[in-house]
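Page 47, continued from p. 46.
Same chain as before, 503 aa.
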Amino acid sequence: MSFSYFRSQKSFLILRKVRSFFSIIYILISFQLFGQDTKSDEKELKTTIDFLCEDELKGRLPGQNGYNKAANYCADKFREFGLLPLSDSGFFQYFYVETNQILNGSEFYSILDKKKINYKLGRDYIFRGFTGSANFPDKKTVFCGYGISRPDLGYDDYASIDVRDKVVIVFKQQPIWRINDQNWGSGSPREKAALAELNGAVGIIFVSSPNITSPQSAIGSVFHGEGIQNEKFPQLHMELAITPDFFSGTEFTLSELQSIIDSTKKPFSLELPTETGINVATNYLSEARTMNVVGFLEGSDPVLKNEYIVIGAHLDHVGSQGDEVIFRGANDNASGSAAVLEIARILSRRKEELKRTLIFVLFSAEEQGLNGSTFFVENSPVPHEQITAMFNFDCVGHGDSLQVGNGFSCPVLWSIVKNKDKSGRNVVIERTWNGGGADATAFHNVEIPSLYFASSYSYTHLHKLSDTPETINYMLLKSLVDLAIESIVEIGGKKYKKENIVK
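Result:
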């Protein structure tokens, strides 16, 4: 054999080794990319949460531009992931809610013995989300206990005191005791404010009951109850720390007053020596358009694609108060919304594993009373009986572990998730409950098997200004998303019967 033959053979072997080397590199890169496509990415989660918490979104209040920007962002993501709309309205399912924008220029102060104390919005007090507008100086204040009028039970906080042209201070909570085992009523802020106004008051100040375990601080809230909005009646929640400014001129502390009422089960209302001034401007709309964001991934099985798994979270939060106070809602519920988007992103790359169709929903107006999820269920784009399961994600980013609610109602569904967790990450605690919970409630109420995912001990910053992206545990959030993906693939990719998941 000639030298040229050996040289050509040597070149062939070198070329084959080079090709093998690059093949291995290609396989490794492909495997790495595949792994990235099938596992959640903390950077993606963080990018979504950071955006949803930006100043320009103003706390994502339904009916306002900030929420609409958040909804458009999520719809664009659905489109980018290859999801399809379920209606002629594209990715939006429109409905109407009342909305109340609190404008700049608020003021709240007290005057006792000619000494004026100005309070800081966000630190000393927060307006209720559906406060009315007002601008009045130096009004007398009156303490009216729990702000209840129930003559039929022989209890009326307003019976023996004149509150006309005054500001009333009442406990935000209802009594923990009853008379004749009768309920007190809803005790909603709107109900208590309407009663105060009916008795002639010009405004209401809520304060947490000081004697209960862990009294609630002043929080942002748009959960206001049924009734007509009084656009000229201001409502705020003041911190317990400043209540001595109002009660120090009496012989009682607020705690002592609560103890007297609770022990005697009788009203103990009294005039206070303190005056107050309140200035707040609002823009209220009784009907403002908002929207759920809805998209779907069609299943691969010709029969099972007509069965559905709903994956949802609420996108809204409680808004802002002027430019200086923005409730960003990182955990509640930018975390859940980010989880839904990330699940959609990953599963859009694993469509071949899914026999059933997945419906992804970001609900509006959960904070007002589960409005968006209720509207979705009542106007479902698919028949209820064809929905195999619903997964809801709410407050899933703060804390050190996860809990999965409604497991007592859906033990098989709960066991699937628990088994997936035990085989991998072990982040789900044993605690569960029945009756749905949050946006899973509307689905549970029509007998759709539902689970409610939340992080344990996650309410440290609930509805507070401190609920910011810095409080999010991204390792926990990533674990949740990966667990949810595995569970959804299990249920969506196998021929589970809905009746077996319910029982």
